[in-house]
């Protein structure tokens, strides 16, 4: 059957893929053993199948093709006659999410030919060029649909831009703010020029213009606070506290600056939450009541910029609940002094 005849390549694990059969392990087998194995499988599908096996090449030809850039497994791959762009893309693990599919190139000797992998992946066979020995498939970054988020976010770097994404979407896409972030001073740079934004006013008033739609190539910068802590939970005025030029101060100083403890506050179990760089925040449990009534100074530790002091109510919230709460939009609201739900 001509439609079943194939020239196939033995993969690195000694397997070939045949029509109707699928994967066949041929490593270490002679031509007769391969013939018998394929015949035995086909006999369940055809009456008296005739199978002929031959080697077109034995071992490496010394000829390679290459996939570079935004693929999951960039590198050199053994060339075989008739290999196409689609085959090379498949063995290289496919394109990453950051791939500029419409900007790929096939470099052949001194020439570079464009290939639209987006069209190829949507069934346009005209883009599935046959490759030659030494050809290089280069898939660049898709900078047209990305923005750069820098500063005090948990995953600084490029973020893929979706339709109508706004500045808050970018911050969340970059892992959310760190505890040291200053979202009141966040800024967008577009072609080197600042774009007006005011997240606090947006979250208070819902004015979309203050949470602007981003454009490809924008740079979002989340600055770092140098003297602010956040006091949350059962205090009179929860929110950010500017500790002034004499920073650092103590946990009790921060609670006092937030108006002092509120009704039902649990001063025997106060959480000090601190984040080093982009690592997961950690919590220290303090007994402020013991400091106030017994003078235990080690329960009233010195603060650092970006620290969070959480005064629980009864019944007591767990450390894991509080730490998990301090992320994404909830943390942005807390940093801006807006109401949050515990």
From TrEMBL:
SLBB domain ranges (all copies): 65-138, 228-311
Primary site of residence: membrane
Residue ranges of domain Soluble ligand binding in the record: 149-193
Polysaccharide export protein N-terminal domain residues: 1-55
Gene Ontology CC annotations of this record: cell outer membrane; pore complex
Domain of life from the UniProt record: Bacteria
One GO MF term attached to the UniProt entry: polysaccharide transmembrane transporter activity
UniProt-listed Gene3D superfamilies: Outer membrane lipoprotein wza domain like, wza like domain
Its membrane topology: Multi-pass membrane protein
Locations listed in the record: Cell outer membrane
Family of this protein: Belongs to the BexD/CtrA/VexA family.
PANTHER family on file: POLYSACCHARIDE EXPORT PROTEIN GFCE-RELATED
Protein name in the entry: Polysaccharide export protein
Annotated organism of origin: Candidatus Segetimicrobium genomatis
Lineage, uppermost ranks: Bacteria, Bacillati, Candidatus Sysuimicrobiota, Candidatus Sysuimicrobiia, Candidatus Sysuimicrobiales
């Amino acid at each position: 059957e001509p439609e079943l005849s194939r020239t196939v390549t033995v993969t690195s694990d000694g397997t070939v893929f045949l029509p109707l059969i699928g994967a066949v392990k041929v490593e270490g087998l002679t031509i007769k053993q391969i013939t018998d194995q394929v015949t035995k499988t086909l006999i369940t599908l055809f009456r008296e199948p005739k199978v002929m096996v031959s080697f077109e090449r034995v071992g490496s030809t010394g000829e390679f093709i290459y996939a570079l850039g935004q693929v999951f497994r960039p590198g050199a791959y053994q060339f075989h006659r008739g290999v196409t762009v689609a085959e090379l893309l498949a063995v290289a693990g496919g394109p990453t999410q950051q791939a500029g599919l419409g900007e790929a190139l096939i470099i052949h000797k001194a020439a570079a030919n464009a290939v639209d992998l987006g069209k190829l992946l949507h069934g346009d066979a005209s883009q599935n060029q046959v490759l030659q020995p030494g050809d290089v498939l280069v898939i660049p970054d898709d900078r047209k649909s990305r923005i750069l988020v820098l500063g005090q976010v948990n995953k600084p770097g490029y973020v893929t831009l979706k339709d109508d994404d706004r500045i808050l979407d970018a911050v969340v896409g970059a892992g959310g703010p760190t505890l040291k972030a200053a979202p009141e001073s966040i800024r967008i740079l577009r072609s080197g020029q600042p774009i007006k934004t005011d997240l606090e006013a947006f979250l208070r008033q819902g004015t979309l213009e203050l949470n602007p739609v981003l454009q490809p190539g924008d740079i979002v910068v989340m600055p770092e606070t140098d003297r602010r802590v956040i006091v949350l939970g059962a205090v009179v005025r929860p929110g950010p506290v500017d500790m002034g030029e004499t920073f650092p101060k103590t946990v009790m100083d921060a609670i006092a600056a937030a108006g002092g403890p509120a009704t039902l506050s649990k001063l025997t179990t106060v959480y000090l939450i601190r984040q080093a760089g982009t690592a997961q925040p950690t919590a220290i449990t303090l007994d402020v009541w013991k400091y106030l009534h017994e003078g235990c100074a080690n329960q009233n530790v010195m603060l650092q910029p970006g620290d969070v002091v959480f005064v629980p109510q009864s019944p007591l919230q767990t450390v894991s609940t509080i730490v998990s709460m301090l992320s994404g939009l909830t943390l942005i609201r807390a940093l801006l002094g807006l109401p949050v739900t515990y």
